[in-house]
Design a protein that fits this description.
Length: 433
RNA sequence: UGGGGCGUAGCUUAGCUGGCAAAGCGCCGGACUGUUAAUCCGAAGACCGGUGGUUCGAAUCCACCCGCCCCAGCCA
């Protein structure tokens, strides 16, 4: 008989042995002389069976003091038992209370309102479903790093504090010494383009901030975005990279986060189908299709959420909608030589109504046309001097995209709202905890 | 910001055509040697979001305010 301290997830390998587990109490049930304590340690949950006649008087007394979320150290024999969640349980021989927990622990094993849960997010994180989401997110993040590492991309960390540059949407401002206002980054892309000219293939993985007063399940004010930028890629190569990337992430989640997806009751049959290539629909066709389905969209409008849902309904894969009208998109996108009303760009729309998980484009690489676009948009030319330099000194065709991490996690996990995909979501009315 | 909905016990909700504030869960006390969100018995727990108004009387009707949820726009 050996004696070891192990994590709950490893217990299947020590059946028949005595082990010590440390964790937190989640449920207590007592039948008088037999008691059940369910504990969690972050790796899994374990039912501990305490028989009064089989433990010391001190351990039995300690059992009487246990409360939900008390931290404990339990020692006993690990045995297989079909009645236990997870198939193994512990026959306790020794029980020690490490940190008690008062009786007012707010989260109960029942339905709660979302406002209450978000107020107690620091404790809600301990719940099984939230642990599963955090682990699935972690696996997805690692898959992202591995995908790019395998393809010799270099990760570049771009600044979070920036001067006003990027897109036009809402900015968070803060004072910055003698330099006036600094703004929290809305994108690392422009810096990514500079890095692509140095390194060829790069990606960024960082927080992004949008001060828009968005109150929908698809928006956070702070979210994480992955932005690859590839020298010599055109818009078509850009889409190929995207579909390979998304397929890789989904495959990886299915392979290595299957327990988590099961815990989340995710029907993975739709995810199993996600394999490159994805359907491609150009914007003009999309508008015609939508009009035939009754949408009031006009050529020139961006797709609304309803339009996206309508369009995606015909497919069980993510789809690309490409080459939008210039007016609907950002200044840095390259004009389409075959139809100058449009730009070489694409959105990748998730299936099952998850909306835009990627926005990408080939970048304008002509100095004069880019300068003209900056002026057309009324942007301060001075602020874009360094960005224009990238077209002045050895310009090069290049393309990239931004993948919204939380939207991707929500889709893969089958969650209706982004707020559960990140440990501490930041929304308009949510700055704490 | 616009449209819709909602604020009642620690939590989730019922009560809303005005007339003594309810239930389930949780917590506390008790019973039980295999429970799975255990079960059974008992107890405690409320400034009905706030302010004003109508009325003999307001959780209920009216006005204003505050907060939240859903949808839309913006986008990842």
């Amino acid at each position: 008989m050996t004696f070891s301290t192990v994590s709950i997830s490893g217990l299947r390998g020590v059946v028949g042995q005595t082990a010590t587990v440390r964790g937190w109490v989640t449920h207590i049930r007592s039948s008088g002389k037999v008691a059940f304590v369910v504990a969690r340690d972050g790796s899994g949950i374990l039912q501990c069976v305490i028989v009064k006649s089989a433990v010391t008087a001190k351990s039995w007394e300690t059992f009487g003091q246990l409360t939900v979320e008390a931290s404990v150290s339990v020692t006993g024999e690990i045995r297989a038992d079909a009645r236990a969640p997870g198939g193994v349980e512990m026959g306790v021989s020794d029980l020690n209370l490490i940190g008690d927990s008062p009786l007012d622990y707010p989260i109960q094993p029942k339905e709660h309102g979302i406002d209450f849960l978000l107020d107690h997010r620091h404790l809600w994180l301990r719940s099984r479903k939230q642990v599963a989401i955090a682990r699935a997110r972690h696996e997805i993040e690692q898959a992202i790093h591995d995908f790019f590492y395998e393809r010799q991309f270099v990760r570049v960390d771009t600044p979070i504090l920036t001067a006003a540059i990027g897109e036009r949407s809402g900015l968070f401002a803060t004072e910055y010494f003698e330099e006036g206002n600094a703004y929290l980054a809305q994108t690392g892309q422009l810096y990514g383009e500079a890095a692509a000219a140095a390194l060829g293939k790069i990606y960024t993985f960082g927080p992004t901030f949008r001060a828009e007063k968005s109150k929908t399940r698809r928006h956070l004010t702070e979210f994480w975005m992955i932005e690859p930028e590839v020298a010599w890629n055109d818009s078509e190569a850009n889409m190929v990279l995207q579909e390979d990337f998304v397929s890789y992430i989904v495959r990886r989640a299915l392979d290595r986060a299957s327990d988590e997806l099961k815990e989340l009751e995710r029907d993975t049959s739709a995810l199993e189908r996600v394999k490159a290539p994805f359907p491609r629909i150009n914007y003009t066709e999309a508008v015609a299709t939508l009009q035939s389905k009754g949408s009031t969209i006009q050529w020139g409008d961006d797709l609304g959420a309803e339009d996206e849902t309508l369009l995606v309904a015909d497919y069980d894969l993510p789809i690309f909608v490409f080459n939008y009208p210039k007016e609907a998109k950002a200044f840095y996108m390259k004009e389409n030589p075959d139809d100058p009303r449009t730009v070489l760009c694409n959105d990748c729309l998730g299936p099952e109504g998850y909306g835009e998980i990627i926005g990408g484009s080939q970048r304008e690489d002509n100095y004069d046309r880019l300068l003209a676009r900056i002026k057309e948009e009324g942007l301060p030319v001075d602020a874009y001097g360094w960005y224009l330099d990238l077209r002045k000194y050895g310009t090069f065709p290049h393309a990239g995209f931004g993948l919204g991490l939380e939207r991707t996690v929500a889709w893969i996990c089958g969650l209706p709202h982004l707020r559960e995909t990140i440990a501490f979501p930041r929304m308009m009315n949510r700055l704490r905890p």
